[in-house]
Each structure stands twice: as structure tokens, then as C-alpha cells.
Design a protein that fits this description.
This protein is α+β, with helices and mostly antiparallel strands. It contains 18 helices and 32 strands. Helix 5 packs antiparallel against helix 6 and helix 8 (386-402) crosses helix 10 (456-470). The protein is globular, with a radius of gyration of 26 Å.
Length: 716
């Protein structure tokens, strides 16, 4: 499938994962590749969703009563081609050109050649298109291009599988609304409960005679406009206008604009791996992340991007923890837009806190699209309070890497304060533990362990969160609105945070009771019983000492400065034996933690699993959409693990190690307006900086890099 570091190619019948792997998008529109055998819908719009009721047979106070569900929209992107009255089957292999951001297919009919070049415009987020290049052979041909607009339809989940990861069956809530007739085809559909109307317009069908030996280039364009509270006629007029403007610009200009946009993205996303397969796998992940993130502040990165209906199109903490770090260090404007979306959801997070019983503060939703909590299973959903700290950590990472304080002035500081207040409302100083600050009855990242006391990851991240919020005015001169008493209480809580420790194993415990449970018999569990969540009742899983994914190990990967090198190694050894990796979030964290512990061989194995998660369909559910956390996690493990990247407290640092699988590598990051490049090759680390000279640290040694690159030895 991986042809080189820039290209993927595959036949249509390679497997059910093909439509998602070869999906194209631009942050708003997502279009799955058309294979002719995939029965799932193809077009999704980031931020367009319906509201559905959540019904409980036995309810409780504060539980969400409604949820968001992203639904596929009308498909105006299909192409039908005929030559001399004969329909042409578009069954050629797919070729994804990631350098230019296009998907190609080339089919032949007799001695005529038809090449389709599909794209989702990175310059105009409402526009998608297909440029049809036709070359006639020894005789003239009559070409027809059609397709039309198909009504919205929903995915039909398997009836015999109760899988919470895929959208459940529901009645189709779309209904068509009339729009004025026009030369350009147009359709509008509305969701009454959420109020969204989506208008889609596309190029008119075409018939043309092509003389023998001549070529024609024809753009077939589709525009999507979606809003609330805007009359359908107005949306339809705007969609048609977009198609008209793009048609007038012409195919050459549209493809040149697309290539230019992707050239700028790759200029910021600089990396190279000696192994071309490894480079192609990692590049595909980063390509899909850039296609997934909405860039106008009205959305973020859904767990599946816009590549499928999985997880109902919801945005989780995956976005801030696994996907945004890559964008923060390479495409800060994209990252800022996603963070601005979180800031805009602060009022909804405040209401979420009130529903949970907190009189002050804000609790970020575990899963959402519109900002409200959509999880009906609070044990593994709303109880994951660590999301407050995850969002704060991503915001801090952005500020310290870019130096951009404007996002703090535009609501980010208020978000940090409101979400930090929750820790004071949730935790307390326990006299029985020497007045240490404890946080009880929360769920950490590991979804096979629920409602615990003192989850290690949560407590560590909460301490970092409170310390940063309390010192924001001192650090950046921006008052987040905390009173002196609140700041003092947060600093005291952070300084006295309780971290459970297991003396027998000499490691930090995942929570107070984790090692007191019966170990799950992992080696004796049949392979067809994984993932456990599809075969065992949650209570049965909760009673056992087993991890679905990295939790304590995620703490090592995220906050390595809190763990001595020998502790990192012990943590890795202990928790590796207890983790079944039923989540695609897991492998990248183990890869980063292993690299930080000096276990580069083990790190490389986990890194390989991460970057091949979807390309090899390792979890057997890529058909429902790509796993954005795994795609971003590949970069995280390379940057934070192997390269040892850190921007803690606004200081750039590296502790690079060799990568046994990828080979020599180059990693480019943006830091405070400068382009910094690390090259690891032949036992050396070479640093280069574009812009003003920059002081950075290499394995704790401070060096200043200016116009002349600096080369230093690697650590063993």
C-alpha cells in the first residue's frame, strides 16, 4: 500500500478499511473513497450534527438527557462517466498523493484514458471537486459526465454486535426543504432538533465530443454550506455561487491552489525517515490529522475525523492529548483554532459542572460535538475529570511553544481558571494521609478501571493544571480571575498532591486500590475474546487488575520530568504486563514512555503498531473511520519519545535517541516563530535554526544555535 514516503496506492477490494484510509478532507468536509463495495455513507461535515434524546429506564439526577450525533449528509460528490453511451466502471486502483492533497484513479476504455483527480479544497473549506482528464485515442468519443446529488442516508450497524464504538441504529432525521430551481443542481436538508440546514450544490451534467487524439480537462465541483437559523434559499444561493466561482477559476487554478496549500502545510510539517515505508505510514497519519481539524474555530478533531461514523462523530480528550501536540509544534494556527473551539464551549462546561453538583467551575465534556456532555455512561465518561487537565495542558503547550498570549486574553485564561476550580471542589486535604491533597472517585484514562481514588495520571495532571493556572499572572501578566485565596489553595494542593506508591513493586500505583485486585488472566484469554469490552460485563472487568490502555504509563509519557529514568523503566515493565491494548490510544504512549526510558527497541515495536493501526486494520474497525489518536500518536512518540522534545516553561529541549525501525530521522518543529530542525544520523544529533539564534538544551547541555548548525553526540 505504501508506495513511497508521499504516496499510498491500493486496489478497491483490498479490504473494508480502504474507504477510510483513502479519505480526503479539509477540516470541514470529509469524503470517504468510493470503492463500489462499501455500503457506508461517504460525506461528513465537521460540526454538523443532530440532537437525540438519551432515554434511561432508571435515571439519576444530573445525567445528560440528550446527545449529539454527527450524521452523513447528502452526497454530491459521486461521478458517473459514459463514453459513446456506455457507462464506464470506475474500478481502477486508488492513488493518494499526499504531497498535493489529491486522490487519483485512472481507467481505460478502449484506447481512451480517463483520470479522476479528487480533492477537498484547503483554500475554500466549503468546496470539494473532481477534475476529470480525458484523452481520446485513435477515434473521437462522446463523453458524458453526471452524478447528481443523493439524499442523506445513515449507516446501518450490524444487528448482532453491541459495539459502543460505532453509531447505533436510528431513524433518519433529515428532511428535504425546497430551494429555488437553478441551472446548477442543488439540494437542502434540515435537522429539526439541532436546527442545522445543509445545502449542497454541484456542477451540471455535461456532454462533449472529444476529437481523436485530443484531451479535455473538466472540473466537477461540489459545495457544502451548513448553518443554523439561515434560510435554505440563502444557503443554496451561497453554495451555487461557490460552485460558479470555482468553475470560472478553472481546473488548473484549483489544482494549483490545492498543491500550494499542501506545500505550505508540509513546509511546516518537516520530517523525514530513512525507511520509506515508515515515512509513508507516519506521513499518512499526519496528512489525515491536517485534513481532520476544523480551522475556523467552530470545531476540533473528532475521534474518527470525518472518515466515518464511528463514535458518533464525537470529540474526546484524544484531540488535546494525542492530535493537537503535533499541530501545536508544526501548524500552530490549526491548533489555535481547535483550542478556540474549547474556549467557546466554556459556558456549556460550566453547565456540565452544575449538573455534576459543582457550584463553581467548569467540567469539560468527555464526548461532545456542540459542547454539552453526551456520555450516558458516567463511570467511564463524565467521571474522567482528567479532561480538564488535558485541555489545560494542551493550552499551556501551545502558549509555551508559540509565545502567543492572545488566546489567553481571548478566554483561555478564564478557561484555565474555571477548569482548575474543579480540583478544589473535587479534592480535599486528607488528615489520614498527612494532609495530602487527594482526589477521590474519578476515572482515569484506563476505561477498564472506574471510579477510583487518586488516579495517578489525574492527580499529576491536576497538580500541573492548578500550578499553571495559579501562576498565570506571574508568568504571563494575565489575570485569570482567581482570588488570592484560590491561588494559594491551588498551589498548596499542587505541592501536596497525593501520588499512590506500591512498595512491593517500587512503582507508582495507577490508583489506591489498583494492585489489590485479582490480575486478569491475559495469557489464558482466547484471542477471540478481545477486546474485552465486547465480551465481558463492565463490572467483571472492573474487578480485575487489567488496563485497557496506557494510564500510569501515559503519565510517564506526558510528564517525564516527574519520573526518574529508573522509575520510567520499572513503570513500563510493571504496567506492560497488565495492559491488553484494547484501545488505539495505548501503543503510542507505551512507545514514548519506552523511548524515554532508553528502551528504544521496545519503543520501536510500539511505534510500528501505532503508525500501522489503520493501514493494517489492526483493531478490525477502521472501516468505521480512522483513529485520529493513533495517527497523531505516531508523531508524539517520535517527537516526545525518541527525540525527547520538551517545551516545559517555554524552554526548548531535546534528549534524542536513535530509532531502530525508522532509521536516521529528521524532525522539524516551530518554536517561538523559528523553524528548528533536529537530524539524528550516524550517532550524532544536528540542530539547525531558521531565524534568530536560539538557546536550546541537548541532554541538559545548553547550546546556542544560529546560522551555523550544531552537531553533538547522541546518548547511548
Amino acid at each position: 500500500m505504501i508506495r513511497d514516503g508521499w504516496t499510498l496506492a491500493a486496489p478497491l477490494d483490498l479490504g473494508p478499511q480502504v474507504p477510510a484510509i483513502f479519505a480526503i478532507g479539509n477540516g470541514f468536509i470529509g469524503i470517504r473513497a468510493e470503492t463500489g463495495t462499501d455500503d457506508l455513507p461517504r460525506v461528513y461535515l465537521n460540526g454538523v450534527y443532530d440532537r437525540v434524546p438519551i432515554d434511561y429506564h432508571e435515571g439519576a439526577h444530573g445525567l445528560p438527557r440528550g446527545g449529539d450525533v454527527r450524521l452523513s449528509v447528502a452526497d454530491g460528490t459521486k461521478i458517473a462517466i459514459g463514453i459513446d453511451g456506455t457507462p464506464i466502471a470506475i474500478d481502477a486502483p486508488l492513488e493518494l498523493d499526499m504531497k498535493r492533497g489529491v486522490l487519483r484513479q485512472t481507467v481505460r476504455h478502449g484506447d481512451a484514458t480517463i483520470t479522476l483527480t479528487r480533492f477537498a479544497s484547503m483554500a475554500e473549506q466549503a468546496l470539494a471537486g473532481c477534475v476529470v482528464d480525458v484523452v481520446a485515442g485513435a477515434r473521437a468519443i462522446d463523453l458524458t459526465i453526471g452524478g447528481g446529488i443523493e439524499a442523506p442516508r445513515l449507516a446501518t450497524p450490524p444487528a448482532d454486535i453491541d459495539d459502543p464504538r460505532i453509531t447505533q441504529a436510528m431513524a433518519n432525521p433529515w428532511h428535504e426543504v425546497a430551494v429555488p430551481a437553478d441551472a446548477l443542481s442543488c439540494r437542502a436538508d434540515r435537522l429539526e432538533r439541532s436546527g442545522f440546514t445543509v445545502a449542497v450544490a454541484r456542477s451540471t451534467p455535461l456532454q462533449v465530443r472529444i476529437p481523436a487524439g485530443e484531451a479535455r480537462r473538466i472540473p466537477v465541483l461540489t459545495a457544502y454550506v451548513a448553518e443554523r437559523d439561515t434560510p435554505p434559499d440563502e444557503l443554496a444561493a451561497r453554495a451555487r455561487a461557490l460552485v460558479g466561482t470555482a468553475t470560472a477559476a478553472g481546473a488548473d487554478a484549483l489544482l494549483a491552489e490545492q498543491e500550494q496549500a499542501w506545500s505550505a502545510i508540509w513546509a511546516g510539517t518537516r520530517f523525514a525517515l530513512a525507511d520509506p515505508v515508515a515515512e509513508g505510514a507516519l506521513r499518512h497519519g499526519l496528512f489525515q490529522i491536517a485534513q481532520a481539524v476544523r480551522r475556523d474555530g467552530h470545531g476540533s478533531i473528532a475521534a474518527k475525523g470525518q472518515t466515518g461514523e464511528g463514535y458518533e462523530g464525537h470529540i474526546f480528550w484524544d484531540a488535546e492529548t494525542y492530535a493537537l501536540p503535533f499541530l501545536i509544534h508544526t501548524q500552530p494556527a490549526m491548533a489555535r483554532a481547535a483550542l478556540a473551539w474549547r474556549v467557546a464551549g466554556l459556558d456549556a462546561a460550566r453547565q456540565n459542572a452544575r449538573d455534576l453538583g459543582h457550584e463553581t467551575g467548569a467540567v469539560m465534556p468527555w464526548r461532545t460535538i456542540g459542547g454539552r456532555e453526551c456520555s450516558s455512561y458516567f463511570l467511564a465518561g463524565s467521571a474522567q475529570y482528567h479532561i480538564n487537565a488535558d485541555v489545560a495542558h494542551a493550552l499551556r503547550l501551545y502558549v509555551e511553544s508559540t509565545g502567543d498570549l492572545s488566546i489567553l486574553r481571548e478566554g483561555g485564561a478564564e478557561l484555565l481558571a474555571e477548569t482548575a476550580r474543579i480540583w478544589l471542589a473535587t479534592g480535599w486535604h486528607d488528615p489520614a494521609r498527612g494532609d495530602a491533597f487527594v482526589i477521590n472517585r474519578v476515572t482515569g484514562p484506563d476505561e477498564y478501571t472506574a471510579l477510583v481514588d487518586n488516579n495517578l495520571y489525574t492527580n499529576l495532571m491536576a497538580a500541573e493544571h492548578m500550578r499553571y493556572a495559579a501562576s498565570l499572572e506571574q508568568r504571563h501578566g494575565i489575570d485569570p480571575g482567581l482570588s488570592p485565596a484560590e491561588r494559594q489553595a491551588m498551589l498548596r494542593a499542587a505541592d501536596t498532591i497525593f501520588l499512590p506508591f506500591d512498595e512491593a513493586r517500587q512503582v507508582f500505583a495507577q490508583d489506591d486500590a489498583f494492585f489489590g485486585k485479582q490480575p486478569w488472566p491475559i495469557s489464558d484469554t482466547p484471542t477471540d475474546k478481545f477486546p474485552l469490552l465486547l465480551h465481558y460485563h463492565p463490572l467483571h472487568i472492573y474487578r480485575h487488575c487489567v488496563c485497557k490502555q496506557a494510564d500510569a504509563v501515559l503519565a510517564v509519557a506526558t510528564l517525564p520530568h516527574r519520573f526518574a529514568p529508573d522509575m520510567r523503566k520499572r513503570m513500563l515493565d510493571v504496567y506492560e504486563a497488565l495492559t491488553v491494548h484494547d484501545s488505539t490510544l495505548s501503543a503510542s504512549s507505551f512507545a514514548a514512555a519506552a523511548a524515554l526510558a532508553g528502551e528504544t527497541g521496545r519503543a520501536a515495536r510500539y511505534w510500528t503498531d501505532t503508525v500501522l493501526t489503520d493501514l493494517l486494520n489492526l483493531h478490525a474497525n477502521t472501516a468505521h473511520g480512522l483513529h485520529m489518536a493513533a495517527l497523531g500518536g505516531g508523531w508524539n512518540a517520535l517527537a516526545f519519545g525518541f527525540a525527547g522534545l520538551s517545551t516545559l516553561d517555554g524552554a526548548l529541549a531535546f534528549s534524542p535517541r536513535a530509532h531502530p525501525v525508522a532509521g536516521d530521522y529528521e524532525l522539524g518543529v516551530r518554536f517561538r516563530g523559528r523553524a528548528v530542525t533536529l537530524t539524528v544520523a550516524n550517532g550524532k544529533a544536528r540542530y539547525a535554526v531558521e531565524g534568530e539564534p536560539l538557546a536550546l538544551t541537548h541532554w541538559g547541555e545548553t547550546v546556542t544555535v544560529g546560522a551555523t548548525p550544531v552537531t553533538l553526540d547522541l546518548r547511548a
